[in-house]
């Protein structure tokens, strides 16, 4: 009986372990090994840290990473600010079919691919696009307005793309908050703000933290949205990795960038958790 | 023509039956550009030879990256440009030599065949034969931006905010020629090439405020030009001719400093498994009638001897309009890119992209 249950556990774990080992661990090790090679001639390589030094010595690459990280953090905060009231409304203010309908509405955009959604934004924002034409029609603008190819467009795209990944964890945690607790807060003389600060936000914290981590990582690793909406001003770190691998044939530097992205983003998430006094264990419940 | 092709296919079928050895059918995994393997050509080839064809569409960089990732496996026939064969072969060894005895040389325009063989020879072996050729230059809305005659005119204040180009190597090369430099002459000398590129970098950074966006794909560029948001751009000749059909003002202009000429080739990936099918495909698509079908789909002419006769008249007219004899003589054909130059270009492109 005991050996049987052990076997069962092993069999159940096998897909997960295979997944982790074959698709996550081994490729990362390989990427790391490639990143340690330096090209010294045609088809000749030696082991060195030159690629990592390039990252720290060339201000352009470091700057691009910092820019990507900062914009991802801002995108995460904006997503949280928009998603929190939406989630609260869905989880607490309405019930029944209306609740499922609204939740479904958040989901609908994700039935089409990210590419199509991004194209949608391009149609809206471009110089000959919908918004520009409406502004001219209403008389708010005298000529065509270009809203594409800048940081604002990237931000809009990132927030839109990540919204669902913030709403889902928030709705789940907020739904588990009993209405009586909120009522008790008001009975004890609290106002809207203090109830939000003392009761709702602390209860929703695990959802906020997990939502923020997911949205931050998705934004940091996003390729399509910044490239398409940002145009000539995009400059996103994943774009650098892509161009090193594909356009420049420089896999060594690309691999170093990829590995640095993994390390630095982990450090940022860890730092943010420490800064806000949260921990992954608490988040996971 | 119809009669002719039936007679031809009958004779090919006969040859195959007589040959006997080629009777077993293979799957040909073809790594190519959009338009180079149109469905009607594939269907005809499959009907005549019994081989099946799997087409994967790509571009130069992705082709090489894909073959590099597998050490030259996963595909049986690829079509990179001729200047991107010798360098990657020396560096990564992703191709295998062509057996010229299996290729019907009579189907090729002799001068193009010789030039491509010369450009794709590594260590005495020939790695590529020519297929489709064309140029890149300027696509201009002649009503809105008649003053754009050369690459550097894209920086002119008259068209500021309404120009676009790719942030890729053809732009660097084109701007260098337009600035009176000769990047091809500097190919052999990394220091000289870096010097040329740093001048181009300064120029591109200076031009950046006037650029609408750097286009990434052909469809994106078409959208920009069609909507009128962009009136002048660097692009391929076929892009200009396609737009010309919709908007007569837009056409391809060979730049004063010379259009950049490219030749896409056939190469055998190192671990290709269906060489016979690959050679059969090459000899099949180089027949004048079939080559004309590819010209109709891709918009570019091929290295097939005699295919011009079968090409559509309107395409020929557009070609002659964009290319007077002097412009043809002025085409700058890409020489093979030595391994390692991409790193220099990469740094330049990254810095231009990051410039404010």
Automatic annotation (TrEMBL), chain A:
Key word Acetylation present: no
PANTHER family hit by this protein: INNER MEMBRANE ABC TRANSPORTER PERMEASE PROTEIN YDCU-RELATED, INNER MEMBRANE ABC TRANSPORTER PERMEASE PROTEIN YDCU-RELATED-RELATED
Pfam families: BPD_transp_1
Gene3D superfamilies hit by this protein: MetI-like
InterPro entries reported for this sequence: MetI-like, MetI-like_sf
Organism per entry: Shimia litoralis
Keywords: Cell membrane, Membrane, Transmembrane, Transmembrane helix, Transport
GO cellular component: plasma membrane
Family, as annotated: Belongs to the binding-protein-dependent transport system permease family. CysTW subfamily.
GO biological process, one term: transmembrane transport
Membrane topology term: Multi-pass membrane protein
Localization in the cell: Cell membrane
Name of protein: ABC transporter permease
Occurrences of domain ABC transmembrane type-1 (ranges): 65-272
TM spans (from-to): 60-90, 102-124, 152-171, 204-224, 253-273
Source taxonomy: Bacteria, Pseudomonadati, Pseudomonadota, Alphaproteobacteria, Rhodobacterales
PROSITE patterns, per database record: ABC_TM1
TrEMBL record, chain B:
BP term (GO), one: polyamine transport
InterPro entries assigned: SBP, Sperm_putr-bd
Localization of this protein: Periplasm
Pfam family, one: SBP_bac_8
Keywords: Periplasm, Signal, Transport
Domain of life: Bacteria
Lyase is among the record's keywords: no
Residues in coiled coil: none
GO MF assignments: polyamine binding
GO cellular component: periplasmic space
Signal peptide (residue range): 1-25
Name this protein carries in UniProt: Extracellular solute-binding protein
Organism for this UniProt entry: Shimia litoralis
């Amino acid at each position: 009986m005991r050996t049987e249950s052990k076997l069962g556990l092993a069999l159940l774990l096998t897909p997960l372990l295979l997944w982790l080992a074959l698709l996550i661990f081994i490729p990362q090790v390989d990427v790391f090994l490639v990143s340690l090679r330096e090209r010294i001639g045609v088809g000749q390589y030696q082991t060195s840290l030159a690629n990592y030094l390039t990252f720290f010595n060339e201000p352009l690459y470091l700057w691009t990473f910092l820019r990507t990280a900062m914009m991802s953090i801002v995108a995460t905060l904006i997503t949280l600010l928009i998603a929190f009231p939406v989630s609260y409304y869905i989880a607490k203010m309405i019930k029944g079919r209306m609740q499922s309908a609204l939740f479904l509405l958040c989901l609908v955009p994700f039935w089409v691919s990210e590419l199509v959604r991004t194209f949608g934004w391009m149609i809206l924002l471009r110089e000959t696009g919908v918004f520009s034409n409406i502004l001219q029609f209403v008389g708010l603008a005298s000529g065509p307005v270009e809203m594409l190819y800048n940081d604002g467009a990237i931000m809009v795209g990132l927030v839109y793309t990540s919204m669902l990944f913030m709403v889902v964890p928030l709705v789940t945690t907020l739904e588990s908050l009993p209405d009586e607790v909120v009522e008790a807060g008001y009975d004890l003389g609290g106002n809207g703000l203090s109830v939000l600060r003392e009761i709702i936000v602390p209860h929703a914290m695990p959802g906020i933290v997990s939502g923020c981590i997911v949205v931050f990582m998705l934004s940091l690793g996003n390729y399509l949205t910044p490239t398409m909406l940002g145009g000539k001003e995009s400059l996103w770190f994943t774009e650098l990795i892509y161009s090193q691998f594909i356009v420049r044939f420089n896999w060594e530097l690309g691999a170093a960038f990829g590995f640095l992205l993994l390390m630095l983003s982990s450090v940022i998430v860890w730092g943010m958790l420490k800064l806000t006094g949260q921990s992954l264990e608490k988040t996971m419940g | 023509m119809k009669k002719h092709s039936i007679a031809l296919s009958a004779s090919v079928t006969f040859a195959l039956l007589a040959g006997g050895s080629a009777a077993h059918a293979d799957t040909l995994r073809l790594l190519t550009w959009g338009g180079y393997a149109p469905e009607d050509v594939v269907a005809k080839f499959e009907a005549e030879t019994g081989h099946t064809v799997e087409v994967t569409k790509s571009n130069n960089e992705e082709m090489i990256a894909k073959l590099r990732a597998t050490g030259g496996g996963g595909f049986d026939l690829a079509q990179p440009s001729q200047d991107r064969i010798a360098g990657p072969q020396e560096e990564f060894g992703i191709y295998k030599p062509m057996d010229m005895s299996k290729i019907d040389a009579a189907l090729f325009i002799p001068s193009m065949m010789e030039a491509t063989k010369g450009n794709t020879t590594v260590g005495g072996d020939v790695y590529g034969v020519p297929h489709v050729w064309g140029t890149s230059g300027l696509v201009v809305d002649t009503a809105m931006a008649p003053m754009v005659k050369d690459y550097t005119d894209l920086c002119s204040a008259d068209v500021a905010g309404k120009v676009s180009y790719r942030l890729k190597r053809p732009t660097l090369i084109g701007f260098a020629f337009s600035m009176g430099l000769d990047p091809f002459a500097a190919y052999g000398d990394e220091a000289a090439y870096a010097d040329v590129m740093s001048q181009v970098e300064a120029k591109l950074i200076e031009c950046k405020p006037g650029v609408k966006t750097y286009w990434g794909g052909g469809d994106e560029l078409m959208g920009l030009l069609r909507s009128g948001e962009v009136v002048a751009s660097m692009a391929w000749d076929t892009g200009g001719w396609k737009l010309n059909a919709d908007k007569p003002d837009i056409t391809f202009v060979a730049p004063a400093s010379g259009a950049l000429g490219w030749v896409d080739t056939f190469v055998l990936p190192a671990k290709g498994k269906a060489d016979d099918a690959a050679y059969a495909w090459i000899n099949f698509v180089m027949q004048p009638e079939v080559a004309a079908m590819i010209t109709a789909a891709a918009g570019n002419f091929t290295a097939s001897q005699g295919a011009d006769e079968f090409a559509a008249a309107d395409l020929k007219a557009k070609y002659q309009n964009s290319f007077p004899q002097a412009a043809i003589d002025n085409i700058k054909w890409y020489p093979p890119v030595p391994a390692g130059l991409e790193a220099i270009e990469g740094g330049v492109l990254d810095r231009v992209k990051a410039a404010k």
